[in-house]
Amino acid sequence: MHPAQNRIRNIFSGVALAVTGLFSSSAAAYPIDCAIFLCLAGGWPASPECTAAKAEFIRRITPFPVEPPLQIWRCPMGVASKITPGEATASRIYDILADRRHPLQSHPSGPAFGPPIDTMLHRIQQYSGGHGVANIDISGPDFDFVRSIRVFNVTARQRLQGSQEDCVRHANVRMGVYGTQGNFSWHDVGVGSVPRAFVGLGKYGQNCPAVSVRAVFVEWRDYEQNYGFEQVNY
Same domain, yes or no, for 81 and 193? Predict the structure, then answer.
């Protein structure tokens, strides 16, 4: 294994220790996305902080409404303006987020402990060009785990109807994906796009047995490409 990859593995194996400090703020919506970002990358290690982060990740896809499970634009990559493009790696960002000596903002200014959280978030949105993208460049392969997240909102029904026993089918599937810089968007897709791990569509399209499915499904891969998913039926 390449030395850099070894370092990444060692960093994320200790992710539970680092995220503890991220929950010190009273504004839970501010640090929770930093914790989701780190815990997801590290494979959701066992800790109270990562358990809380994963619970929020899943809560956001629980209808209604269905939200982006990771809202990376809410996680300021502290002192990001000091990072050169070649240094914007997952390990570097992890180190910055874990370093409580610096205020969590893109343009450090003001008193030693930084401005209030709402001021920081406003600056981050300005720096990133608005709501919906990370405030640093995450286009590199170190951040593929962000783009691996896919959300599927699925409604499907199938039944026999009428004296001729015609098979009536209806399916509506929307897929939520993350773009290069962490921006989230929805797209209409077919039933065939739903991952195999999804439960409930096995008989859809086959000889018309009764099928009724309403569910939201999210899948992801961590930094080391380990696969995970959750399904919420409603």
Answer: no
Q: Residues 186-202: pLDDT tens digits? A: 999 999 999 999 999 99
Question: String of b and e for 185-196 (b: at least 16 CB within 10 Å)?
Answer: eeeeeebeebee
pLDDT at 97: 54
What value does the mean pLDDT take over residues 162-173? 89
Range of the domain at 108: 3-140
Q: Are residues 128 and 13 in the same domain?
A: yes
Q: Which of 7-16, 76-85, 99-108 has the lowest mean pLDDT?
A: 99-108
pTM of the model: 0.72
Compute CA distances 27 → 10, 24, 33, 129, 173, whole Å.
30, 9, 12, 23, 34
Tell me, yes or no, whether 132 and 207 share the same domain.
Answer: no
Mapping DSSP onto H, E and C, the string for the chain reads CCHHHHHHHHHHHCHHHHHHHHHCCCCCCCCHHHHHHHHHHCCCCCCHHHHHHHHHHHHCCCCCCCCCCCCHHHCCCCCHHHCCHHHCCHHHHHHHHHCCCCCCCCCCCCCCCCCCHHHHHHHHHHHHCCCCCCCCCCCCHHHHHHHCCEEEEEEEEEEEECCCCEEEEEEEEEEEEECCCCCEEEEEECHHHCCCCCCCCCCCCCCCCCEEEEEEEEEEECCCCCEEEEEEEC
55 and 94 housed in the same domain: yes
Residues 47 and 19 sit within 8 Å (Cβ to Cβ): yes
Q: According to the model, what pLDDT value does residue 178 have?
A: 97
